[in-house]
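Researcher: Let's do a round of design. I'm pasting the structure tokens now; please hold your answer until I've finished.
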């Protein structure tokens, strides 16, 4: 029953493709009923769908699927960048056992839905998503770089915490229906990123702990300042990428698969 109800309501959000003749009368009746539905109730359903989509994503990140790898944690056994990759003679960077964890602990601090276009049945989603902390660990690193005529080198341990990274902005979404199901379409988006702090802990830089502490403090300030300085440029790139990749991912993502979460 749940599936049928959601299917019927979603039909009011998008124009349908031609359906079998024995369904035409019931579909017309459904559309006529939904045209008189309150905008607030429609927005409430869209909110439920998006929140369910996020929970589905969280579950997918933790457990993976046949076609989707586990993303929390992300584990990379070895990263090796040589002088050809770096385009720097006599240089290399090696990182062993890189682990990135806790990205699935994201929280939706703010979410607001509004009708972007009643005629086109498009909805605007303003959001502010934050992850309490992302932990990055390695078993070891080894680097040697020739930079501006000098040597930068180190070998030791490296870990960092990204405190409260956040993604905020908005999406304008709509729905399309086909014989294969009901799908979300991203029409527009604006994505911005930020963080509270970047906390690297590095040992072995220049074979000296004082130097390691200096590099850690330098990176802590540099990363946050770079994110702020290039905020608009980063936002533009992210918005374009998310719009393209998001629609590719959602193109075959039938909303019926969210039923266990709604």
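Researcher: That's everything. Go ahead.
Model: Designed sequence:
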């Amino acid at each position: 029953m749940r599936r049928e109800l959601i299917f019927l309501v979603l039909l009011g959000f998008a124009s349908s493709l031609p359906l079998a003749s024995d369904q035409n009368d019931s579909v017309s009746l459904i559309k006529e009923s939904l045209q008189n539905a309150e905008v607030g109730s429609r927005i409430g359903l869209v909110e439920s769908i998006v929140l369910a989509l996020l929970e589905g994503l969280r579950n997918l990140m933790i457990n993976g699927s046949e076609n989707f790898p586990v993303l929390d944690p992300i584990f990379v056994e070895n990263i090796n960048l040589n002088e050809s990759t770096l385009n720097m003679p006599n240089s290399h960077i090696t990182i062993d056992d890189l682990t990135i964890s806790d990205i699935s602990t994201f929280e939706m601090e703010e979410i607001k839905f509004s009708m972007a276009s009643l005629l086109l049945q498009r909805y605007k989603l303003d959001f502010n998503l934050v992850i309490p902390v992302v932990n990055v660990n390695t078993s070891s690193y080894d680097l040697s770089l020739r930079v501006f005529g000098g040597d930068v080198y180190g070998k030791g341990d490296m870990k960092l915490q990204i405190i409260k990274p956040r993604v905020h902005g908005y999406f304008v979404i709509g729905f399309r229906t086909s014989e294969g199901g009901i799908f979300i379409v991203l029409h527009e988006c604006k994505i911005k990123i930020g963080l509270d702090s970047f906390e690297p802990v590095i040992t072995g830089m220049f074979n000296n702990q004082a130097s390691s502490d200096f590099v850690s403090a330098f990176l802590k300030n540099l990363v946050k300042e770079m994110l702020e300085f290039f905020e608009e440029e980063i936002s533009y790139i992210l918005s374009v990428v998310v719009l393209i990749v998001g629609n590719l991912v959602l193109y075959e993502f039938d909303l019926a698969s969210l039923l266990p979460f709604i």
